[in-house]
Write a structure and sequence with these properties.
By secondary structure, the protein is of the alpha/beta class. The protein has six helices and ten strands; from the N terminus they run E-H-E-E-E-H-E-E-E-H-E-H-E-H-E-H. Helix content is 35%, strand content 32%. Helix 1 crosses helix 6.
C-alpha cells in the first residue's frame, strides 16, 4: 500500500477526487483518506504544515497502515534562475537546512547522514518518466525547514550551506527522516509556486494551487499504475 502525503487541503483535494471507495479516518487528530487509486489500495494523509507536523503524521501513517512506500506532494519555492513557476522538482536528497550542530564538528550539507536523506531510485525513475512527458522537471536536492523562505539572507544561507539545492519547502525532510527510520522508500514531488530569487514571478495562490493539485493527482495515479505493472 502506497502512502501519499500533502500538507494542506488544497494540495490533496484533487487526489481525493481520483480515489475510489474512499473512507475518511481521523487518528490522533490527523486526517487519512483510505481507498483505491487505479484499483490499488492507498492512503492519503493531510499532514499539516511544517516538519514536526509532517513527521508526526508520517509516524501515525506507518503505525496504523501497512505502507510499503511514501510519495510526498506539494509546493516549494525555486532557488535557481533557470526555473519557472509550475516547474517540477523531484527529490534526490532531502535535507534539514535549519538543523545545525556544526559547532560539534558535524558539517552542513547534502552529504551528511544526520541531516540528509536519499529518495528511492526506482521511485525517482518512475516519476521522471511520467512527468517529463508533459512538464519541465528538475531532479536534485531539496532544502527543508520550518520557515517560509522569502528573504535574501535566508536564500543566501541555504545556498552557502546546501549548495545546489533546487528548492526550499517545509515538510519533506521530516517525512524523509521518518521513512528512513522505518526503512521505507520515499520520493518528494514539488511544484514551484514561486522562484525566490526572481521578482514578480508568482501566480495568484488559488489559481496556482488548483493547477498544481490537479497535476500532482494525475502523476500519483500514473505512478501507482506503473508500480502495479512492475509488480
Amino acid at each position: 500500500m502506497i502512502g501519499f502525503i500533502g500538507a494542506m487541503d488544497e494540495e490533496i483535494a484533487e487526489l481525493v477526487k481520483l480515489m475510489s471507495e474512499v473512507k475518511k479516518e481521523e487518528i490522533s487528530k490527523v486526517e487519512f483518506y483510505k481507498g483505491k487509486l487505479s484499483d490499488v489500495d492507498c492512503v492519503l494523509t493531510k499532514s499539516g504544515v511544517g516538519k514536526v507536523a509532517a513527521a508526526m503524521s508520517t509516524t501515525i501513517l506507518f503505525e496504523n497502515f501497512d505502507i510499503e512506500g511514501v510519495v510526498n506532494i506539494g509546493t516549494a519555492g525555486g532557488l535557481r534562475e533557470d526555473q519557472e513557476v509550475l516547474d517540477v522538482v523531484i527529490s534526490n536528497i532531502v535535507a534539514h537546512h535549519d538543523m545545525d550542530i556544526s559547532v560539534f564538528g558535524y558539517p552542513l550539507g547534502f552529504d551528511q547522514d544526520y541531516t540528509a536523506y536519499k529518495a528511492d531510485d526506482k521511485y525517482i525513475e518512475i516519476m521522471k518518466n511520467i512527468i517529463e512527458k508533459e512538464d519541465r522537471v528538475f531532479i536534485g536536492n531539496i532544502a527543508s525547514g520550518d520557515s517560509f523562505i522569502h528573504r535574501e539572507d535566508q536564500i543566501e544561507l541555504i545556498n552557502k550551506n546546501f549548495p545546489g539545492a533546487l528548492c526550499a519547502e517545509m515538510e519533506a525532510a521530516g517525512i524523509a527522516q521518518v521513512c528512513k527510520h522505518y526503512k521505507k522508500p520515499f520520493i518528494v514531488i514539488r511544484s514551484l509556486s514561486d522562484i525566490t530569487i526572481k521578482e514578480g514571478n508568482d501566480l495568484d495562490f488559488n489559481t496556482y494551487v488548483s493547477l498544481a493539485s490537479k497535476r500532482s493527482a494525475l502523476w500519483c495515479e500514473k505512478f501507482i499504475e506503473e508500480l502495479k505493472n512492475q509488480a
